[in-house]
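ok so i was messing around last nite and threw this chain in just to see what happens. nothing serious, just curious
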Amino acid sequence: MEVLLIILKVLGITLLILLGVLLLILLLILIVPVYYTVDAEYYGTLKAVARARWLWFVLDLKGTYGESRFLYYLKSFGFTISTNDETNKHFYKGLAEEERVEEQPIPVRVLEDDFPTDFPSPPVRKEPEIPLVEEEEEPKVRPDRTGIFLKIHNKIQAGMEWITTIPMRVHYKISEILARILDFLENIKENMNRLAEKKDMILGKLKDGTVFLQSEPVKRAWKDIKKYLLRIGKHFRPRKLQGTLRFGLEDPASTGQILGVMGMLMPLYRDHIVIAPDFEQKIFEGQLYAKGRLQAGFFVTLLVQVILNRNLMNTIQEARNIIGGNS
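result:
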């Protein structure tokens, strides 16, 4: 009995330790953010380096793009566990045995002098001669002089049969044309009825949708959606942003229009990005550096808030009913 209690005690302690470890890992995933950096430039060719790290050295993902080639390196605790760089020694570790390049054996050239030539030659076997049989000439067939009269008779008979079947063929053709016309008119009638039904359905959905969009629950739901979107944008916004942009088009007026649009977006980048328009030549070049972080706990919390927002969920369900035609 005491042994059984000791075993149960050890199992309980082991389960508690495992649950504690799982809980710790879950908390680390939710709380510890993923830090990312992006460094890109374009001066005739695009070059970019992006990196994402979690728990400093636990997971480290790096990607580079240059010379029309993308390479990535995934490391854990400083060791490369996956990459697509063929020059890296860890590249072949992820390949299957049959995918690896095996060295082919070098073929050995054999010289005739390596073999002795004093062996007796085997006797030559003569095959029996087969007597040739002369082919008999086929007897020539004389042309039948009555064949031309038979052909004329067959043609006359076929012409008479074709003439006698004209009324029947005309009857079949007229019946086929009338059947096609009736089918076409019937299809037009059915299509018009379907269009009328769809028209009423579409107009009914538009009317219900207009009333639905003007309702008070939709207005409150739209305010909540804008609030959630602003929070997501704020979370994705880099903590550090620097860059320069020099652009110009062939038409100076078009360059000025684009500059006006960028001026409207200035609250997003403020003084972090220096914009230099060029009104004399067509050009596009610049560089960008961004650094920020993403936290899984933020998205989980936001998802829970959206699910618990009964007004938003009821509004989404009602919109699905209107679009799907459910009452």
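not much to say yet. The two ends are 66 Å apart (CA to CA).
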